Amino acid sequence: MLVSGSGRSLDNLIARSSELGIEIGLVLSDREGVRALEIAERHGLPSVVVAPRRYADAAAAGAAIWSAIRAARVELVVLAGFLRLLPVPADWRGRVLNIHPSLLPKYGGKGFFGNRVHAAVLAAGDATSGCTVHYVDEQYDTGPPLLQRTVSVEPRDTTDALAARVFAAEKEALPEAIQLHFARTQVAP
Question: Could you confirm whether 100 is annotated as catalytic?
């Protein structure tokens, strides 16, 4: 799992890993000192920090990320709150998932994350929002969707209230998408 912050989705997948028949082989963060790394440590999961500022350029940081992923010998990469563009090498296309807190293609792309997404939904007056689990390609939030979950936007919603309902949908959508991915690829988790 690639993370940048709180690790809420990591927590969710750890709690559901037995039910899903998965093992989390690596937690990789682009930031030091984030809660997700504490969660990984508490559960005895291997973790690594690949902070882009330590590298000459984005390509070198990307190479370090993929080196760590390959060394972990995992079958699937899940971006859960990872806030960097991750170029996907050809041999990993179709094996990298991202969870995004909107019904893509709406409110996706660079700069659309967290409460920024929910604020945009509310400002637009949309009646629904939700989340999308999609395969990662070379751009932010444009890869093929695997599944979406919809939530209603309530008349008195705040960004925090909408975010809470969307995250509740994410907690179900991400595990379901992982199962769907493995069923489609016929590779056991």
Answer: yes
